[in-house]
Amino acid sequence: MTAVPRTNDYPDVALRAEALESLLLERGLIDPNVVDGLISRYENDVGPMNGARVIAKAWTDADYRQRLLEDGTAAIGELGYSGPQGEHIEVLENSDRVHNVVVCTLCSCYPWPVLGLPPSWYKDPAYRARIVREPRQVLADMGLDLDDDVEIRVWDSSSEVRYLVLPERPDGTSDLSEEELAALVTRDAMVGVGRVTAP
Amino acid sequence: MSELSVDLPITGPTAPPRSNGEMVFDAPWESRLFGVTMALVEAERFSWSEFQQRLIASVGRWEADHPDGEGYRYYERWAEALESLLADLGIVAIETTDARALALAARPAGHDHLGDEPGPAAHDVP
Fold first, then answer.
1. What number is the ipTM of this complex?
2. Do residue A2 and residue B88 have CB atoms under 8 angstroms apart?
């Protein structure tokens, strides 16, 4: 593999990215409208609100929940969510005894179709190393205190499998509609570093 | 076990509110680089998994060189991964990107406030 040299007077990465884009453009290898469209899609249209709708449906439809746990990719596809980084999504069910949390120790694998692009902390070396070694402490640092008798399972994403956490439905939400429930579900809860709370 | 105990930012810096939750890029060049990469994947210049292997390698190299994790910038790793893949595929050589980046660096200050073709005409417009 070609190593990219780095020295202090080397053009900075923002300039290199701009240089690369201009070269690819001149050679007709990329279409600027396609690039703009992809950026807009991932900034605005693909994101955790998709996953929140999946979770809310699983909370209100027992058959869907079953399908979701058996074949996450297919059940998520039923709602129209698919695409890159969503080829094989497994759904992990939280309970009062088991708490699931997701990481990618090697890079940044993440289920884009349901959560969008990962937040900066997910990509950070500190999270990626520490969540494996001391998950209870990292979760506490992020504001999630779990009882000592709750088993924590850490799932390492890979290029083959992405994970989505199915959080527990909070108490006191039996009157809420699916749409109202979806509004409560946070990205952090679906990665497993937070919980969903009643309004 | 505290050598990696840096703070974990839970939200991005000064993220403006968005329907989607938060900004996913910290700088415009990051979003451009992401869009360019995905456009190349869509155009089947390379597959996502080919790119991902480069990304994993780039992240791994950096972490081996920086065991304390200080100064990590994810999209710098992404840029290195894309540059190395495009070079090895014979699409854009590293030296070509170097030369273009240096040319861009030599632009006069304020170039991006004058439009694409500044020239004297830009000042002659009434």
1. 0.79
2. yes
